[in-house]
Specification:
With 221 residues, the chain is of the alpha/beta class. It folds into two domains: 144 residues, HAD superfamily/HAD-like (Rossmann fold), CATH 3.40.50.1000; 63 residues, DNA polymerase, domain 1, CATH 1.10.150. It contains ten helices and six strands; from the N terminus they run βαααααβαβαβαβαβα. Pfam families: HAD_2. One of its GO terms (molecular function) is phosphoglycolate phosphatase activity. InterPro entries: HAD-like_hydrolase_sf, HAD-like_sf, HAD-SF_hydro_IA, HAD_2, HAD_sf, PGP-like_dom2.
């Protein structure tokens, strides 16, 4: 039976979390909301509607949610052609593919945003499939994106590891029954990732790659 290495993308493989913070902050500012950036940072990784509810509160007018989401999408879209992959991201995916893992992306991004992220990673030859926000009814921290990734890979939860950078990732992976690995490249503290379910935590993809043989993604797992 095969094995699946499931990866979040923003903050895990591509260095975009602080771009999201800045563009969400500007979208909120344009709409008249005074929001502190640290509050937005803690919500990065959630789907747009969930992020807005987390930052502004649940009782939001649907038209306002749509307008804020569109403003963020437009602002963030200006960076699509220069999104930076995190150090070692492509090499990590290729190494895992070489070691026999099915590499699947599980991300809240979809459409042109997902295409831009994949261009940044530049490792399509190592990616088996992608579970995007377009494919599931509920986003992280619900387990749906991870469960869909497992379906695409054709493996059970006990044969999979999920790598992410936020507490939402760790909670989604834990709820899906997979082992979870955290990375610090999204800016979330180690203690928070561990409390949310991370079995091991690494600085970034390059650190995970260098530590692969001692990690939950070891070749003999």
């Amino acid at each position: 039976m095969g094995r699946a290495a499931v990866f979040d993308v923003d903050g895990t493989l591509v260095d975009t979390n602080h771009l999201h913070v800045t563009t969400w902050w500007e979208a909120f500012r344009q709409a008249g909301h005074d929001v502190e950036m640290h509050a937005i940072h803690r919500a990065v990784g959630l789907a747009s509607g969930d992020l807005i509810a987390h930052v502004l509160g649940e009782s939001r007018d649907p038209d306002e949610v749509s307008a804020l989401s569109a403003a963020h999408r437009s602002l963030y879209g200006t960076y699509f052609e220069r999104l930076p992959a995190l150090r070692g991201a492509g090499r990590l995916l290729r190494r895992l593919d070489h070691d026999g893992w099915s590499v699947v992306l599980a991300t809240s991004a979809g459409g042109s945003e997902l295409s831009a992220l994949r261009r940044a990673i530049d490792a399509d030859d190592a990616i088996t499939a992608t579970a995007s926000a377009d494919d599931v009814d509920a986003s992280k921290p619900a387990p749906d994106p991870v469960e869909h990734a497992l379906e695409l890979a054709g493996v059970p939860a006990e044969r999979a590891v999920f790598v992410g950078d936020t507490v939402w990732d760790m909670r989604a992976g834990t709820r899906a029954g997979v082992r979870c690995v955290g990375v610090l490249s999204g800016g979330i503290p180690r203690a928070d990732l561990e409390a949310a379910g991370a079995e091991a935590v690494y600085r970034d993809p390059a650190h995970l790659l260098a530590s692969l043989e001692e990690s939950p993604l070891a070749a003999d797992v």
